[in-house]
């Protein structure tokens, strides 16, 4: 499974949020437009000079930003590895869901069979009532079924 690294723009956005800096404040510090800040937040990578400028605006060092980027990459890779493992949480959860689905299917089959049996009995009970009604009505008018 291929891992995808977190973008430098998201790291800068996170740092701005942690330091309670708005896009307008960052734009003023970087001497760019607010749209320029939003565009930066969407960047996948950036030159070291630009990282240094953003670090200054955020009050951190370039190394801090790069370390945070590498740390997030490692955490992401660990999570991907953990999910891919057969003993991982998601795999256990999927197994539980499959067992639940199997159990529900068996319950539905059983209840469908019960409904079929009851519907069949209902039909035969109705038929028997009709036959009794028919015989009673015929005998009331003097007809006999047995000759």
Describe this structure as you would to a colleague.
- The chain has 147 residues and is mainly alpha-helical.
- The chain has six helices and no strands.
- Helix 2 crosses helix 3.
- The relative contact order is 0.08.
Q: Strands, helices and their partners?
A:
Blueprint: H1 8-18, H2 23-30, H3 34-41, H4 48-58, H5 62-84, H6 89-140
Helix pairs in contact: 2-3, 4-5
Provide key terms for this protein:
mainly alpha; 0% strand; 77% helix; 434 Repressor (Amino-terminal Domain); 147 residues
Termini separation (Å)? 86 Å
Radius of gyration: 37 Å
The name of the CATH superfamily of the largest domain reads lambda repressor-like DNA-binding domains
Proportion in helices: over 70%
Shape: rod-shaped
Q: Helix/strand/pairing class, anyone?
A: mainly alpha
**From the 3D coordinates, which CATH architecture of the largest domain would you assign?**
Orthogonal Bundle
CATH topology label of the largest domain: 434 Repressor (Amino-terminal Domain)
Order of helices and strands: HHHHHH
Report the total helices: 6
Strand percent estimate: under 5%
CATH class label of the largest domain? Mainly Alpha
Look at the structure and give the mean pLDDT. 77
Number of domains: 2
How is the biggest beta sheet arranged? none
């Amino acid at each position: 499974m291929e891992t995808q690294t977190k973008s430098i723009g998201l790291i800068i956005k996170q740092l701005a949020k942690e330091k309670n800096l708005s896009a307008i404040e960052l734009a003023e510090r970087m001497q760019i437009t607010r749209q320029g800040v939003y565009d930066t937040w969407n960047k996948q990578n950036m030159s070291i000079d630009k990282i240094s400028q953003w670090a200054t605006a955020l009050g951190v060092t370039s190394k801090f930003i790069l370390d945070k980027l590498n740390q997030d990459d490692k955490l992401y890779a660990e999570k991907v590895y953990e999910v891919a493992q057969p003993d991982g949480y998601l795999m256990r959860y999927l197994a539980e869901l499959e067992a639940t689905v199997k159990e529900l299917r068996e319950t539905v089959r059983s209840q469908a069979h019960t409904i079929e049996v009851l519907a069949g009995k209902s039909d035969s009970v109705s038929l028997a009532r009709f036959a009794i009604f028919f015989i009673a009505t015929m005998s009331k008018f003097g007809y006999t079924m047995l000759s």
